[in-house]
Amino acid sequence: MPDDHPLRGQMKKNLASFEPDLLQQTDLKRASVAVIATLDDTGDDPAFIVTRRAAKLRGHAGQWAFPGGRLDPGETSLEGALRETHEELGLALTGEHCLGQLDDYETRSGYAISAFVFWMTKAQMTPNPDEVAAIHHFEIASLDRPDSPELLPGPDPERPIIRVHVGPVDIHAPTGAILHQFHEVAVKGLATRVAHFDQPDWAR
Asked: Which pLDDT band holds residue 52 (cuts at 50, 70, 90)?
């Protein structure tokens, strides 16, 4: 997929016109994730990357996640997303690959997750086995399904739990919320917000 692929230009334009809602609370721990658009295994269709976290991790073991993690002291949110992606996937993203930013998402465990959208042609990745059990490519077109996202009742009636169906798997918030906003904002050009979507207890 060359860098002049029409979807890249479409996403860059959509993100440029989107004003992300960035959380300013100083009591929140800061983390960043990378939403990476690239090629699927056939080399024909735009895809996004999600990982399955290693089973031996102390937190969120086995869960679906974008590459990312907690910021180091003095690190910007973008720098954290770049560093974590390199540590987890061996992928050397730079700021030149960044198309824009989505909303921060506040988790129930006290994190503010900053999400950046990247485009990298022919991304060659080697998972870090200490953190990543597997890397999965899903076609971006697979997000266009009428039964997704699914909203489930949660403890707060005004904050339904979001679950995104992708192929044979279900992805919950926070990853599911960020993925839904990526599809709505970057791909479709809408101004959809996701802060009101909750996550299940086991994803805290």
From this structure: confident
Cα R_g (the chain), whole angstroms: 16
Do 177 and 199 contact (CB within 8 A), yes or no?
Answer: yes
Give me the pLDDT at residue 47, please.
93
Kind and range of the H or E run holding 85: helix 77-89
Return the SS3 of 58.
Answer: coil
Q: Quote the pLDDT of residue 60.
A: 58
Do residues 49 and 123 touch, judged by C-beta distance below 8 A? yes
- Residue at 59: amino acid letter: G
- pLDDT at res. 202: 77
The closest alpha carbon to 101, from 85, 112, 78, 117, belongs to 117
Three-state DSSP class for 152?
A: strand
Judged by phi (left if over 0) then psi (alpha if -120 to 50, else beta), residue 200 lies in: beta
Helix (H/G/I), strand (E/B), else coil: 178: helix
The Cα–Cα gap between 99 and 117 comes to: 6
* Joined tokens for residue 114: 């900053």
